[in-house]
Design brief:
Helices cover 40% and strands 25% of the residues. The chain is globular. By secondary structure, it is of the alpha/beta class. Strands 3-7-8-9-6-10 form a 6-stranded mixed beta sheet. Strands 11-15-16-17-14-18 form a 6-stranded mixed beta sheet, covered by helices on one side.
Length: 367
């Protein structure tokens, strides 16, 4: 509780997630789902170079809205998880989003919904131009490092896919189908098909970052019912989640889908707020830090003889996948260090007092 103008208010709650990720397909963006246009009242798109204060600008607005009792969603940067790529205030249908590379965002409905905030107007242009050659050189080095990191991730993913194929051969998909069908029937018991299609939101709960594999499941999975799904790649964990989501969409029920940091098309976690249900996959890389109400282990339907036959291949793939993923993380870390160097060319040339004044004016218009 905190005191605000003589009134005691409950501080807002925070949810953490990633709108984009460093994946086997390069940088992959789900930015269109941060706050969909049809729902948004205002979307402020921040423009400006590195070090101009975009993340701080968003954090300060988020802190003030939290102090006023509003829930806030923190959209973290996969290339620097301590930094923000956006914030959303759901009760206000307002978002502030970093619209610079690699997630370039331009207004879709200028004036009606979107507004550009150019923080570049608060810098000393002469001071930045002096470092032109170093800025160009550093940007090229950052780009090169990310491309190398993406090649490592893609190479590692090919080994992951091979293990997926082996586990798929060993899997009794018929028995898994029975479990999937029973799960869908139980979750949607008594809920008929709707004429209205359920809306969907797509984001990442985890990311491959310079700090390693980071996930924010604990801030997202807050439902009464939590179904944990265990299963090696290829056992059909995503098939179960897809079936549940399809059933929700058919019944007009809103869903939040969170995708794999490695493969941005593979569904890993599903939240259905209306039914107070979450389904989350659990493995070595990520797991929910609370007791589930139900656990489904698809590994029970694996043929041990097939696993034993390919044991050496599975171990080789697993070890080399981890080696390549660690190499990718180290390379992204190098890119982050270069990005910090890039910021050093901008920070001394920024008028942060003027940015603060502008931020305060924006805040007044939000509350």
């Amino acid at each position: 509780m905190f005191h605000n103008g003589g009134i005691y208010m409950e501080k807002g709650r925070i949810r953490h997630m990633f709108p984009g990720g460093n994946t086997s397909e390069g940088f992959y963006s789900y930015y269109d789902y941060v706050l969909p246009q049809e729902r948004a009242e205002r979307i402020f798109i921040l423009k400006g170079g590195p070090g101009v204060g975009k993340s701080t600008f968003m954090k300060k607005i988020a802190e003030e809205m939290l102090n006023r009792g509003y829930d806030v969603e923190y959209m973290h940067c996969s290339s620097d998880p301590s930094s923000l790529d956006g914030i959303v205030v759901p009760a206000k249908n307002v978002a502030v989003i970093d619209g610079t590379a690699p997630h370039v965002i331009d207004p879709k409905n200028p004036g009606a919904v979107d507004e550009i905030i150019n923080l570049g107007r608060f810098w000393n242009n002469d001071g930045i131009v002096k470092n032109r050659d170093m800025i160009l050189k550093t940007n090229m080095e950052i780009s090169s490092l990310f491309q190398r990191a993406y090649r490592y991730i893609k190479a590692g993913y090919s080994l992951y896919r091979d293990n997926e194929a082996i586990y798929g051969m060993a899997m009794d998909h018929g028995k898994a189908n029975v479990i999937i069908s029973e799960t869908v029937d139980r979750i949607f018991s008594g809920i008929g098909i709707s004429e209205v299609v359920g809306k969907q939101r797509r984001l990442f709960a985890s990311a491959i970052t310079p700090e390693g594999l980071v996930n924010h499941l604990s801030s997202l999975v807050k439902t009464e019912e939590v179904i944990v799904i265990e299963g090696n790649p290829g056992t059909g964990t995503e098939r179960l989640l897809e079936r549940v989501r399809e059933a929700a969409v058919e019944r007009g029920i809103y869903t939040e889908s969170y995708y794999c940091a490695l493969n941005p098309h593979k569904l890993e976690h599903l939240i259905i707020p209306e039914l107070d249900v979450s389904l989350t996959t659990s493995n070595k890389i990520h797991h929910i830090d609370r007791n589930p109400t139900q656990k489904i282990d698809l590994n029970e339907f694996l043929d041990g003889a097939v696993i034993q036959k390919y044991g050496e291949v599975l171990d080789f793939n697993r070890e080399n996948f981890e080696m390549l993923l660690n190499r990718a993380i180290a390379t992204i870390k190098q890119a982050k260090e270069k990005h910090d160097e890039l910021e050093s060319f901008y920070v001394p040339n920024m008028n942060f007092d003027e940015i603060q004044k502008y931020r305060d004016e924006l805040l007044k218009s939000l509350v």
